[in-house]
Specification:
Blueprint (H helix, E strand, L loop, with lengths): L1 H89 L3 H14 L18 H10 L1
Length: about 140
């Protein structure tokens, strides 16, 4: 009976080893192929999602650039219109221009101002400037 039990244990061990070897030889390679296939699918899905994110970000940047450009055009049109209004109001209005010049002179404190002559050549004050610096 001990011999039968020993033979039975040996047979069970041999069958178990045969099953493990068969599992390692046939099932595991198929599992590895399946696993690599699943990993490839997951990586492909990640790459596709990253591509879609990049496309959406680029579209958002393009839309933002268009909106900023449109705002800049509107601002430039406003500046052009304001310049036109100011230019028209200064035409033939020597008194107002003279007033603005006098106001600008009031705001300058201790600065040298060159006034152009009729020929367009400024009157220089090189000698006076040197004397002023020496007095300061």
């Amino acid at each position: 009976m001990i011999e039968k039990k020993s033979n039975l244990k040996f047979t069970v061990a041999v069958i178990f080893i045969a099953v493990v070897v068969a599992f390692e030889m046939f099932v595991m390679p198929m599992y590895r192929v399946w696993q690599q296939n699943q990993e490839g699918k997951a990586e492909l899905a990640r790459a596709e999602q990253n591509r879609q994110i990049a496309v959406q970000e680029a579209l958002a940047k393009a839309e933002s650039a268009k909106a900023l450009a449109q705002a800049e055009v509107i601002r430039a049109e406003g500046v052009a219109r304001a310049n036109q209004i100011i230019g028209e109001s200064l035409k033939d209005n020597e008194a107002y221009i003279h007033y603005l010049w006098v106001e600008a002179l009031r705001e300058t404190k201790g600065e040298v101002i060159y006034i152009p002559t009729e020929a367009g050549i400024p009157i220089t004050e090189a000698g006076n400037r040197k004397r002023r610096q020496d007095n300061d």
